């Protein structure tokens, strides 16, 4: 069965997992989804077999072969299935997209997380300012349509506002007009809005996860 | 800037060496510019305002930053010679996965090994050896990680061979005892001119940089 050809081991609330789902949906690929209990650390034997190095979701299985690490999976999806282009075609634009995707995962993600868990906002603000500058004058990081960097930045668009709501701490303020406009466009765009995780569930999760004011 | 391709680099940076190997494999002529990391050039700050780090490849005036991003750019731009990434998407994904693994594990473990002492150093050494053992298992019986030819993962990992002697000296161990296949793989890579001309002398890394730095840090 075509559906069984593509399987995704993911977690409902994980932005990394959702990145892969968004990409599959944008390409119109049918897949079988397996929920992993990452919070209870009760990982399935399949997950441990398919990602023995990191033991993490997401893991995509295509024709029985596993691919791990969300950005690697996104590139695999883009190269395997034609249709909606996730990365640009031109080498310099591809390099630019990969650069910003790395920046988001290596710098933005940890600093944003620290700003909520430890109250250290400075680094997060600096990193977001760099993203803001990159986004200026564009509808999406990918230009007119959602692309690789937009998908990787998904946690800023949807998860960060929910952490703000849960903790009462603001990060995406008035000094980020481009990012604020972008996040609204992103979460209301056709394919993305139908596949976002439950707002209420996430807010409840973040209320428990982060210390309140 | 008269040359079309310029590389801003620092002699012993494993990240810089990756780019040198990739350019050499492709036979690309370029201008090498050594940066003084204690006094970074205006050009570097202008070309990499986000990280202010080397390596930076400047091609026709446009900068590309982050070593594995640069290596992929080189592979896609000069595509008619020495392909570094395979053509099959699954093998490409595997190569990118291991490139990411090397980025996340090898550099930070190695750095902890040479910048600490005592228990912290011992823990870093164990972790570094463990990471190389994982890579060794992935290499299997192949000549290169890329199969019959040097590939993306080989380019990502081989520069650390310049640092083996420094790791061994600081950690008091021999890589050959723990990861003989990795050492043998590295020696095979070194037989290629693109690698031997791009990597720096391991003795220089240790004696001219690491040991003096350890003294300055009060570790020895």
TrEMBL record, chain A:
<keyword id="KW-0808">Transferase</keyword>
<dbReference type="GO" id="GO:0006749">
    <property type="term" value="P:glutathione metabolic process"/>
</dbReference>
<dbReference type="Pfam" id="PF00043">
    <property type="entry name" value="GST_C"/>
</dbReference>
<dbReference type="GO" id="GO:0005737">
    <property type="term" value="C:cytoplasm"/>
</dbReference>
<dbReference type="InterPro" id="IPR004046">
    <property type="entry name" value="GST_C"/>
</dbReference>
<dbReference type="InterPro" id="IPR045073">
    <property type="entry name" value="Omega/Tau-like"/>
</dbReference>
<protein>
    <recommendedName>
        <fullName>glutathione transferase</fullName>
        <ecNumber>2.5.1.18</ecNumber>
    </recommendedName>
</protein>
<comment type="similarity">
    <text>Belongs to the GST superfamily.</text>
</comment>
<dbReference type="Pfam" id="PF02798">
    <property type="entry name" value="GST_N"/>
</dbReference>
<dbReference type="InterPro" id="IPR004045">
    <property type="entry name" value="Glutathione_S-Trfase_N"/>
</dbReference>
<dbReference type="InterPro" id="IPR040079">
    <property type="entry name" value="Glutathione_S-Trfase"/>
</dbReference>
<dbReference type="InterPro" id="IPR045074">
    <property type="entry name" value="GST_C_Tau"/>
</dbReference>
<feature type="domain" description="GST N-terminal">
    <location>
        <begin position="4"/>
        <end position="85"/>
    </location>
</feature>
<dbReference type="GO" id="GO:0004364">
    <property type="term" value="F:glutathione transferase activity"/>
</dbReference>
<dbReference type="InterPro" id="IPR036249">
    <property type="entry name" value="Thioredoxin-like_sf"/>
</dbReference>
<dbReference type="InterPro" id="IPR036282">
    <property type="entry name" value="Glutathione-S-Trfase_C_sf"/>
</dbReference>
<dbReference type="InterPro" id="IPR010987">
    <property type="entry name" value="Glutathione-S-Trfase_C-like"/>
</dbReference>
<feature type="domain" description="GST C-terminal">
    <location>
        <begin position="90"/>
        <end position="210"/>
    </location>
</feature>
Automatic annotation (TrEMBL), chain B:
<dbReference type="Pfam" id="PF02798">
    <property type="entry name" value="GST_N"/>
</dbReference>
<feature type="domain" description="GST C-terminal">
    <location>
        <begin position="88"/>
        <end position="216"/>
    </location>
</feature>
<comment type="similarity">
    <text>Belongs to the GST superfamily.</text>
</comment>
<dbReference type="InterPro" id="IPR045073">
    <property type="entry name" value="Omega/Tau-like"/>
</dbReference>
<protein>
    <recommendedName>
        <fullName>glutathione transferase</fullName>
        <ecNumber>2.5.1.18</ecNumber>
    </recommendedName>
</protein>
<dbReference type="GO" id="GO:0005737">
    <property type="term" value="C:cytoplasm"/>
</dbReference>
<dbReference type="InterPro" id="IPR004046">
    <property type="entry name" value="GST_C"/>
</dbReference>
<keyword id="KW-0808">Transferase</keyword>
<dbReference type="GO" id="GO:0006749">
    <property type="term" value="P:glutathione metabolic process"/>
</dbReference>
<dbReference type="InterPro" id="IPR010987">
    <property type="entry name" value="Glutathione-S-Trfase_C-like"/>
</dbReference>
<keyword id="KW-0732">Signal</keyword>
<dbReference type="InterPro" id="IPR036249">
    <property type="entry name" value="Thioredoxin-like_sf"/>
</dbReference>
<dbReference type="InterPro" id="IPR004045">
    <property type="entry name" value="Glutathione_S-Trfase_N"/>
</dbReference>
<dbReference type="GO" id="GO:0004364">
    <property type="term" value="F:glutathione transferase activity"/>
</dbReference>
<dbReference type="InterPro" id="IPR045074">
    <property type="entry name" value="GST_C_Tau"/>
</dbReference>
<feature type="domain" description="GST N-terminal">
    <location>
        <begin position="3"/>
        <end position="82"/>
    </location>
</feature>
<dbReference type="InterPro" id="IPR040079">
    <property type="entry name" value="Glutathione_S-Trfase"/>
</dbReference>
<dbReference type="Pfam" id="PF00043">
    <property type="entry name" value="GST_C"/>
</dbReference>
<dbReference type="InterPro" id="IPR036282">
    <property type="entry name" value="Glutathione-S-Trfase_C_sf"/>
</dbReference>
<feature type="signal peptide">
    <location>
        <begin position="1"/>
        <end position="24"/>
    </location>
</feature>
């Amino acid at each position: 069965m075509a559906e069984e050809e593509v399987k995704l081991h993911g977690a409902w609330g994980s932005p990394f997992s959702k990145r892969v789902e968004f990409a599959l949906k944008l390409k119109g690929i049918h897949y079988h989804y397996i929920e992993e209990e990452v919070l209870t650390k009760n990982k399935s034997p399949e997950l441990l077999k398919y990602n023995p190095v990191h033991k993490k979701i997401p893991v995509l299985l295509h024709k029985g072969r596993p691919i791990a690490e969300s950005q690697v999976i996104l590139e695999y999806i883009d190269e395997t299935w034609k249709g909606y282009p996730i990365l640009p075609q031109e080498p310099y634009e591809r390099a630019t997209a990969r650069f910003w995707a790395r920046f988001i995962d290596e710098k933005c993600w940890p600093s944003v997380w620290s700003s909520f868990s430890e109250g250290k906002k400075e680094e997060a603000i600096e990193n977001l300012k760099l993203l803001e500058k990159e986004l200026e004058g564009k509808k999406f990081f990918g230009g007119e349509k959602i692309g690789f960097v937009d998908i990787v930045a998904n946690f800023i668009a949807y998860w960060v506002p929910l952490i703000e709501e849960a903790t009462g701490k603001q990060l995406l303020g008035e000094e980020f007009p481009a990012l604020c406009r972008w996040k609204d466009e992103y979460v209301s765009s056709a394919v993305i809005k139908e596949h976002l995780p439950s707002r209420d569930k996430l807010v409840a999760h973040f209320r428990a996860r982060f210390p309140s004011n | 800037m008269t040359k079309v391709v310029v590389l801003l680099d620092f002699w012993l940076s494993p990240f810089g060496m990756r780019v040198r190997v990739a350019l050499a494999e492709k036979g690309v002529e370029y201008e090498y510019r050594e940066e003084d990391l204690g006094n970074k050039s205006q050009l570097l700050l202008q070309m990499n305002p986000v990280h202010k780090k080397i390596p930076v490849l400047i091609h026709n005036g446009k900068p590309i930053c982050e070593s594995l991003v640069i290596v992929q750019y080189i592979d896609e731009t000069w595509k008619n010679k020495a392909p570094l990434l395979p053509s099959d998407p699954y093998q490409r994904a595997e190569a990118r996965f291991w490139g990411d693994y090397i980025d996340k594990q090898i550099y930070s473990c190695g750095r902890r090994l040479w910048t600490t002492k005592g228990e912290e150093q011992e823990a870093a050494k164990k972790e570094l050896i463990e990471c190389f053992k994982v890579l060794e298992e992935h290499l299997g019986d192949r000549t290169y990680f890329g199969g019959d030819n040097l590939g993306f993962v080989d380019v990502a990992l081989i520069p650390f061979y310049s640092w083996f002697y420094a790791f061994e000296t600081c950690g008091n161990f021999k890589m050959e005892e723990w990861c003989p296949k990795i050492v043998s793989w590295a020696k095979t890579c070194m037989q290629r001119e693109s690698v031997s001309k791009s990597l720096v002398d391991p003795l220089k890394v240790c004696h001219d940089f690491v040991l003096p730095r350890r003294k300055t840090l009060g570790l020895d």
